[in-house]
Amino acid sequence: MSHIPVMPAETLALLSPRDGGTYLDATFGGGGHASLILEAAACTLFAIDRDPAAINRGAALAARYPGRLTLIEGRFGAMLELLGEVGVARLDGVLMDCGTSSFQLDEAARGFSFRLSGPLDMRMGRDGPTAAMLVNTLPGSDLADLFAEYGEERHAKRIARAIIAARVRAPIASTTELAGIIRTAVPPSRDRIDPATRTFQALRIRVNDELDEIARGLAAAATLLSPGARLVAIAFHSLEDRLIKRFMADAAGRTPAPSRHAPSTSRPAPRFRLLTPRALRPQPAEIAANPRAASARLRALERLALAA
To answer: Is 292 helix (H, G, I), strand (E, B) or coil?
Structure first.
């Protein structure tokens, strides 16, 4: 197993770490981006991850940079509280890489991948319901809604009916079993994407409350940024990217003005500057070397200096 950080050059250029600065890697994962930040500048880095396995793996990196890397187990949506506990109230930059770690995808026992046989778990942390619990207990209408909302799956109702029929015979316990049920219910697509892809995405998002976590994390990061500090966020599917795009546009005052027919109201001056009018995407060479980077979308925001 290996972890290759996505869009490393673009991430560093936008985060722009400097000597003496204090930064947060809100999604430590395999530590690839954290290592790049620590190498780029003589800075202090805090790193959060809800996965205890990621925190344990990070010990070796922390040993390489004594006194500069602090690992914190927890949800990045709670970064205000987590950083407050270690005395950090301001940051010079925040990185949020919203993708699932390669370690999680490649470890069959974690249950994230439909390509590997393992228990139907999908939890990034150690708490909460597993994907198996949702698949085996939710009513068919709720399953269909889940697949449609979080997976943008147009065959959501058909898949839900197939799951209900299968679980009557016996509980669905493994990733390959669920993937097989989906493949029998949904015809192969012309783009050759596995029919199980969107359903597994939907379950993972629901199990880990990912979209609400991102919303909380973005709001907290904006609060922590010092003037001139930057927030860099990487999304891997349209639901994440739309959430990040909307948040950054609002923060930078890029949302459309009210209708000219509506009562006029003064709009507060924006507190942030949008650094990426359009999302940056990986270059073809990176995608060839790391196919998992193909869907990445990078956006960045800078906190403006306070008015005099």
So the answer is: helix
Is the predicted pLDDT of residue 58 greater than 80, yes or no?
A: yes
- Of 208, 241, 269, the position where a domain reaches its end is 208
- pLDDT at residue 114 in the model: 86
**Token reading at 58:** 């990070």
Strands annotated E in the chain: 22-25, 44-49, 69-73, 91-97, 225-235, 272-274, 297-303
- Residue 259 lies in domain: 8-103+210-303
Q: Clarify whether residues 124 and 269 are in a common domain.
A: no
Least confident of 179-188, 207-216, 298-307: 298-307
Confirm whether 25 is domain-assigned.
yes
Q: Does some domain include residue 1?
A: no
Instruction: For strands 225-235 and 297-303, give the pairing.
Output: antiparallel
Does residue 34 lie within any of the structural domains? yes
Percent of the chain's residues with pLDDT above 90: 81
pTM above 0.85, yes or no: yes
DSSP string, 210-244: HHHHHHHHHHHHHHHEEEEEEEEEEESSHHHHHHH
Task: Answer yes or no: do 141 and 198 share one domain.
Answer: yes
197 within 8 A of 147, measured Cβ to Cβ: no
- Across 228-257, b (16+ Cβ under 10 Å) vs e yields ebbbbbbbbbebbbebbbebbbebbeeeee
CA distance 78 to 56: 20
